[in-house]
Amino acid sequence: MEKSKMRYRRFGRTELRMPVLTCGGMRFQHKWSDEAPEAIPADNQANLEATIRRALELGINHIETARGYGTSEMQLGRILPGLRREELIVQTKITPAETQKEFLERFEKSMDYLGLEYVDLLSVHGINEEGVYEMAMRKGGSLEAARKLQAEGRVRFIGFSTHAPCKLILKTIGTGEFDYVNLHWYFVYDLNWPAVVEAARRDMGVFIISPNDKGGKLYEPPAKLERLCEPLSPMAFNDLYCLARPEVHTLSIGAARPGDFDEHMRALEYYDRAAEVIAPVEARVLAEMDAALGVDWRENWTRGIPEFTETPGQVNLLEIMRLWALAKSLDLVEFGKMRYNLLGNAGHWFPGRNAAEWDRAGIARAVSGSPFAERVPGILEEAHRMLAGEERKRLSEGD
Description:
Blueprint: E1 8-10, E2 17-19, E3 21-24, H1 42-57, E4 62-64, H2 72-76, E5 89-94, H3 100-114, E6 119-124, H4 130-137, H5 142-151, E7 155-161, H6 166-174, E8 180-183, H7 193-201, E9 205-208, H8 223-229, H9 234-243, E10 250-253, H10 262-267, H11 274-293, H12 297-300, H13 317-330, H14 333-340, H15 360-366, H16 376-387
Helix pairs in contact: 3-5, 6-7, 9-11, 11-13, 13-14, 13-16
């Protein structure tokens, strides 16, 4: 695998030459909490540095981390300052704060850990709900603090990351304040496509979060999905599905070890024919979904289904119905369990509640405009039977 195989795209109005694969820094660090430097095990640090060097060998020069990724920034700070800075694109992410002082203190800690004079990309991290949006966007808020850093030359471009419903993502994009966006969109989650299109229309960079994990737990695919995706792997299919769209610029690969890039590099062998190569695979997968769910499901399942903020008990109907459909049709049961049991346990990063308890009459009223209104109660009951298990936490909230 040679560096020449990497492909690059213009990252919107930043004009950065962005590799289509990003080295995401949330899986190779020692811990999800800050630790004393001497607490970092030598073998863990060696693995992290080998992963970074492998990424650079492959032409993956975009390194992405966050203040919320525990020891990631500190450990990256042991290798990044020794590399050719002009060849790197470094991104970190800072959550909005109640005061500019607090936001700036978080940024300073990030920079102290990274050992860099500036970052190329700074994301206002986690604009997932209206309250966080207001904290970021208000006069005297976190975005204004980020602008001060940009004026000082410590930040080149400012974007935002989000796990929000599409409506709020579109609202944030519509401010015109951001150069790029980190968001979820892939084969198993197409609800944010309008936001991708709008970001591209505004010439923003589009960064896809976690296509391996949130894109279906594709590092452990079910046998059925493997069979449907042949001759590609499910991971390669998803990569090419995303990259077949010019609106998408890069996919974050949360590598835990140097070899985690290999399957994605194999996918790039089909890069110039992406649309052609994925077409028969996509047709098979969609036919399987249509057979299991009904031919009208794919086109109409979201119609008349309210966001969790508008349902009794904040039951996240859209997410539950999505996970149910993927488990039912493509055997993505383990992925469904991972996501379903986060509902109600991950704050605004994965909002709403699952179907452990719900108001039957209230839900019936809420979905009365859906063509599948009569099926929704049964779907909720079956989803809970299939997917309920131990409550989950986000990785950053674990031990």
